[in-house]
Amino acid sequence: MNLFQSVTSALDNTLAKDPSAVIFGEDVGFGGVFRCTVGLRDKYGKDRVFNTPLCEQGIVGFGIGVAVAGATAIAEIQFADYIYPAFDQIVNEAAKYRYRSGNLFDCGSLTIRAPWGCVGHGALYHSQSPEAFFVHCPGIKVVIPRSPIEAKGLLLSCIEDKNPCIFFEPKILYRSAVEQVPVEPYYIPLSQAEILQEGSDVTLVAWGTQVSTVYLV
């Protein structure tokens, strides 16, 4: 599988396993810009995979409500560059929901997906990497995979995690990275670094598309 197919596989696994799971966002019904949800509406129905208006704040706000009600919410922001209108919903609502209610309520079953990073022809509004705005915010987890195998395992872990997660998908890897990805579900732990090469002279830390470049160094 390439990376976008591994994402599709993870979403397929989730919809099959969890009858409360729903996927929504701009154009996800027909598969989305990068085809990550292709075929899922036909397989699971328009009540579980559906389009939303072009309103990122509304998409995330709706996702928070779905998660608080007890369902599994998987929201797609069409490009990470357009996540900023949803900033208030993510930082001031989703991230703080558990804390402000004294652990009575939470929206931990919310996962926000977004294509991320430079692709070479994305110009100003389809090339951004906004993760730094969110990694400093307590209450949410930010995940960026480096490969198809990592993408599926980490996305499934985000969906199962008890905290709201933002899952940024390196769009330049959607079709350029190919690996033998298991069809069945599997999980890769969050908040745990993957060590690709051990040594004692220097430590290089990277995420997403940077990993392969740093590894070559």
Question: Would you kindly provide a written description of the structure presented here, covering whatever features stand out?
Answer:
One of its GO terms (biological process) is branched-chain amino acid catabolic process. GO terms for molecular function: branched-chain 2-oxo acid dehydrogenase activity. It is an enzyme of class 1 (oxidoreductase). Keywords: Oxidoreductase. Its cofactor is thiamine diphosphate. This protein is an alpha/beta fold. The chain has a single domain (3-216), classed as Thiamin diphosphate (ThDP)-binding fold, Pyr/PP domains (Rossmann fold, 3-Layer(aba) Sandwich). The protein is 32% helix and 12% strand. The chain contains eight helices and six strands, in the order H-E-H-E-H-E-H-H-E-H-E-H-E-H. The chain has helices at 3-17, 40-44, 56-68, 87-94, 97-100, 132-135, 148-160, 210-216; strands at 22-25, 49-51, 73-76, 110-116, 141-143, 165-170. Strands 2-1-3-4-6-5 form a six-stranded parallel sheet, with helices on both faces. The chain is globular. The model has no long low-confidence stretch (mean pLDDT 96).
Element layout with pairings:
Layout: H1 3-17, E1 22-25, H2 40-44, E2 49-51, H3 56-68, E3 73-76, H4 87-94, H5 97-100, E4 110-116, H6 132-135, E5 141-143, H7 148-160, E6 165-170, H8 210-216
Parallel strand pairs: 1-2, 1-3, 3-4, 4-6, 5-6
